[in-house]
Specification:
Chain lengths: ~220, ~260
């Protein structure tokens, strides 16, 4: 029995729905990981130790353990202490925080490498340190790390398949459902792969647009 | 309540880094509208003194006063931050390396702080940006990013940025020494114009000609002390101290 893609159209609706879920989760988690990354970076660099230490711990957990385990913890673990999150929310939080930690590492390095004359100039016109960070230092730091953050976001998209294990009908799980109905794993996994590739291209396109906008001011 | 009578008053300024004493009991008064130049060899403490005036470098001893208010007041941390941020709005500073914000246009560089700190409307901000950039001759580059400006142009925008806060005092730390020689004049012209408008200025410079032509008073510093101080025609023409004479001989020889 060879490849037969004629089975695909009958199940394309479930695949497309899975695509939408994947895009929604990836975009939401990407946004969370971006802003979370900035917040984590600022806390790591400037927070008082009483906040910094618990954060360090959280960072170790997110960097040193499998994402899969983190998703289980957030979805199944938190229920036990009364926090019952919908699966897709748990997925977004897990993915978002996991990558926020990676983004934070990049942003910290970038913040430290912004010329210290920038902070000084901002302070001499009367800005507070917080205002100077927000308006002068962080925008420049973030601008410098858009390309590596973009790479993290592509990893995030790929890892979003993991949220299928907590029952979110994203692209991978949808493909599995179609396979369950048709016993055509090769065809549907290939179709899913093709869709991941297309979404990936879309993300790269967005990243290039952002980079181009930024390069105008260089 | 003012217990001081000069516009700017530095009293017994002292600054150490560990055991290195960079400023040794320096006192200096500047009157409203006066222009004071600080000259001296590298490492003599000129920048440190200038940066102590807006507390960019904190003194380890002594006081700085501006217009009846002590800049480096002894206050609890939070209160001090509020106080110093307010004081700094009155003290413009221009750096050797411009330190323009590269992610903002000339216009945005000029109005960012006034917008944030004084809550200007969009119209008021536009007007302010045009006014200040016009003053430094940069109106035609108002929407340029710093990366597309020459060094002299950057420095003029940096001056406009400082002026936009309507400071009472302007500090210049070697504003022209990072510039190609042919770009120095355009910045000096702007500073001369400020002098004509009676802006109070303290200028650290290596340019003796410029200092002589705009300043009311010249301070020669060496190794953390003021060696000699007076009107430029005295300090440059008839210095009384050997160290001043030696410095000028080297420096003027280098120029000629
Ligand atoms: N952060 C610092 N830590 C230790 N020493 C410092 C620091 N900043 C400055 N110094 C020292 O203080 C002294 C005075 O420095 P300052 O920058 O005020 O000199 P300057 O007169 O401005 O010199 P230049 O003409 O080279 O700019 C120098 O010996 C310098 O090495
Ligand atoms: Mg200096």
């Amino acid at each position: 029995m060879g490849l037969d893609f004629t089975v695909v159209p009958a199940h394309i609706d479930i695949i497309l729905l899975g695509c939408l879920w994947t895009i929604a989760i990836a975009v939401a988690a990407a946004v969370l990981s971006f802003f979370g990354g900035i917040v984590f970076a600022v806390i790591a660099l400037y927070g008082p130790w009483i906040i910094r230490l618990p954060f360090r711990l959280l960072e170790w957990v997110f960097m040193g353990t499998p994402l899969l385990l983190q998703l289980f913890l957030i979805y199944f673990g938190l229920v036990q202490i009364g926090i019952d999150l919908p699966a897709f929310v748990a997925g977004i939080i897990g993915l978002g925080l996991h990558f926020a930690v990676y983004n934070s590492e990049l942003i910290q390095t970038a913040i430290l490498s912004v010329d210290k004359g920038q902070m000084e100039a901002a302070r001499t016109v009367g800005l507070s340190r917080g205002q100077a960070l927000r308006k002068v230092v962080i925008p420049q730091a973030v601008r410098d790390v858009i390309p590596p953050i973009g790479n993290n976001m592509i990893a995030l998209l790929k890892d979003s398949a993991l949220v299928s294990v907590i029952g979110v009908s994203e692209l991978t799980l949808s493909a599995q459902r179609a396979i369950g109905a048709t016993y055509r794993p090769f065809e549907f996994y290939l179709v899913a792969a093709a869709f991941y590739y297309v979404i990936n291209l879309g993300m790269e396109w967005v990243q290039r647009r952002i980079e181009r906008r930024i390069s105008i001011s260089r | 309540m003012t217990d001081q009578s000069h516009f700017v008053e530095i009293r017994h300024a002292q600054k150490s880094y560990g055991t290195l004493e960079v400023l040794k009991d320096i006192s200096l008064n500047v009157e409203r509208g006066q222009i004071v130049a600080i000259i001296g060899p590298s490492g003599s403490g000129k920048s440190t003194l200038l940066r102590a005036i807006n507390d960019l470098d904190s003194l380890t001893g002594g006081e700085v006063w501006l217009d009846g208010v002590q800049v480096n007041k002894d206050l609890p941390h939070r209160q001090y931050e509020k106080h110093i941020n307010a004081m700094r709005q009155d003290i413009g500073m221009v750096f050797q390396h411009f330190n323009l914000f590269p992610h903002l246009t000339a216009r945005e560089n000029v109005v960012m702080a006034p917008k944030m700190l004084k809550g200007l409307s969009k119209e008021a901000a536009d007007k302010l940006a045009e006014e200040q950039l016009e003053k430094v001759g940069m109106l035609d580059r108002i929407d340029y990013y710093p990366s597309r400006l020459s060094g002299g142009q950057k420095q003029r925008v940096a001056i406009a940025r400082a002026l936009a806060m309507k400071p009472k005092l302007m500090l210049f730390d070697e504003a022209t020494s990072a510039l190609d020689p042919e770009l120095v004049d355009e910045v000096n012209m702007v500073m001369k114009k400020l002098a004509e408008e009676h802006m109070t200025m303290i200028i650290v410079t290596h340019e003796m000609d410029f200092a002589a032509s705009v300043c009311d008073r010249v301070l020669f510093m060496d190794q953390g002390v003021v060696v000699e101080e007076g009107p430029p025609e005295i300090v440059f023409r008839k210095p009384t101290k050997d160290r001043t004479r030696e410095f000028l001989r080297k420096h003027l020889a280098g120029v000629a």
